[in-house]
Amino acid sequence: MPCGFGVRDHMMFVIDFKMESFVGTKPLCFIWSGAHRLNNKLPSVQEQYLKSLEKLLRDHNIPQRIQKASKSTQHKSIVKEETDKIENEKRQYMAHSEKKCRRIKLGSIPFSDEAALWIRCRKVYHFILKYHVGKIRNIANLKCAARRCGIERALS
Questions:
Q1: 1 or 58, which is more confident
Q2: I want to staple 97 with a disulfide (CB 3.0 to 4.6 A). Which of 53, 104, 109, 112 is the partner?
Q3: Are the C-beta atoms of 125 and 150 separated by less than 8 Å?
Q4: pLDDT tens for each residue of 28-48
C-alpha cells in the first residue's frame, strides 16, 4: 500500500506472476465424475439396480479378479494397470445397470390417458408441420401415427 492510502484513494495494483510460481510446471488436472441419473427415492429402483449390478459383477468375476490383482507379486505398475482396467469395466457395468433401471419422467402433468393422447397428438401435428416444410421423407410413419391419434386426412 502506498503511504497516504485513504478513503478517496483509487489506485490500482497490478502484479504479474508466472503460473509456474503458483502451480508448478505440471498443474493438477481435475476430473469431474459423471452425473448419475438413477432415481434413488424409489426402493424398487434401488433393488433392481443392485440386482442388475451384482449379476453383472458376478458374471464377469470382478471380485475374484480384484482379489487376484491385489495379491499379485508382479511389479506395482502392472498391478495398477490391471486394477485400473478392472475399475473401468466396473464403471461400465454400473452405467449399464443405471441405464436399465432409470425412469425419467417430465413430471409436468400427472399421467392420464387423455393427457397421453394429447401429447401424442401434439407430436403428430408437429411432424405434420415438419412434413410441409420438407424435412420428413417417410410419409408412412406420419400417416400411421396420425391414424392412431384419430387425425383424418393429416397431409391434406
A1: 58
A2: 53
A3: no
A4: 666 666 666 777 777 888 888
User: Whole-angstrom Cα distance, residue 59 to residue 19?
Assistant: 49
Give residue for cell 503460473: 19
- The pTM score is 0.46
Helix (H), strand (E), coil (C) string for the chain:
CCCCCCCCCCCCCCCCCCHHHHHCCCCCCCCCCCCCCCCCCCHHHHHHHHHHHHHHHHHCCHHHHHHHHHCCCCCHHHHHHHHHHHHHHHHHHHHHHHHHHCCCCCCCCCCCHHHHHHHHHHHHHHHHHHHHHCCCCCHHHHHHHHHHCCCCCCCC
Rounded CA-CA distance 2/55 in Å is: 70
